[in-house]
Amino acid sequence: MKQLPALLLTFSMCALPLAPALSAEAAATPGHAAVRDGGSEAANKQQITRLYQLMGADPQAAGRLFAHDLIQHDPQLADGRDAITRWIAGLGRQVWTVKHMLAERDLVFVHAHLGESAADEWHGNNRYDLYRLDRGLVVEHWAVTAPAPQRSANGNSAFSDVYHYTGGAPATDPARVELNRLLARSLSEDVFGKRQFGLLDRFWASGYLQHNPYVANGRAALASVLPYIAPPGASYRVMHAMADGDLALVCAHAADPGANPDAPFSGTAVCDLYRMVNYEMVEHWDVAQAIPGSSVNGHAMFGSLYGKHRQGHD
């Protein structure tokens, strides 16, 4: 049996408080502050909820929720408020339906269906959008998107919630949420980056519920395709990891065997969303987008630039 990393051994033994391990991991994560403010996170969620309400009703009002000097990572859009406002207006009568929303510190993640009908989850677009907010305005934006799959090996759409708690969802205290984030990140790196496939037996539920259209439900189905998802020599680098409630998000830059993993305008942008119960993966959604060789804004799809441009936005 392969030896697990110290952090994962702590999880596997259902250990007591992990303050030292958490502090070390947080310190090793660039830009990841040690303290969360539930009040500001709730306010940020409320602001992004308002954004999605306005995008279909009043694009100009929606645009005013972005900073004038918005830093844009969506490769099809230029920097700035004007470009994203024009893009929103150009969507016409398409309907935004928020499926999942996570907030952590100054970031809000939204998993949404964009299409002609909210009821038709088998057409339209599967969108994973990440927003950084400062003083109520969106100052930085990332997006990974793909067409919604029209059929699925597991029978689930890319958006539905299938897992059901017995007796209702339990409360998730801040320590557990942070552990979920650390575990999701560490497992993603170890399984997809280091090919430690044996970890599935410990941290993935046997009845794992799948929304990736190419993989059937169940841990065994995932195990059968992992050698193809993470072939020898491939690169997998986590760029964002966050958690809220029982959900954890991991976004990564993946590169094929032989490709340069440090080339920002090549490879694949991948985001995985997990539902975690008792430190076990029970449900999974994802999206993948080929990274274009250039972008309208000149920025890579991943990376955080706002810390270098903190002054002068409004």
What descriptors fit this protein?
single chain, 314 residues, alpha+beta, Nuclear Transport Factor 2, Chain: A, 2 domains, 5-stranded mixed sheet, 8 helices, 10 strands, globular, disordered N terminus, SnoaL-like, NTF2-like_dom_sf
Please provide a written account of the structure.
It is a single chain. The chain has 314 residues and is of the alpha+beta class. The protein folds into 2 domains: 38-147, Nuclear Transport Factor 2, Chain: A, CATH 3.10.450.50; 154-290, Nuclear Transport Factor 2, Chain: A. The protein has 8 helices and 10 strands. The strands form 2 sheets. Strands 1-5-4-3-2 form a 5-stranded mixed β-sheet, covered by helices on one side. The longest helix has 20 residues, at 38-57. The termini are far apart.
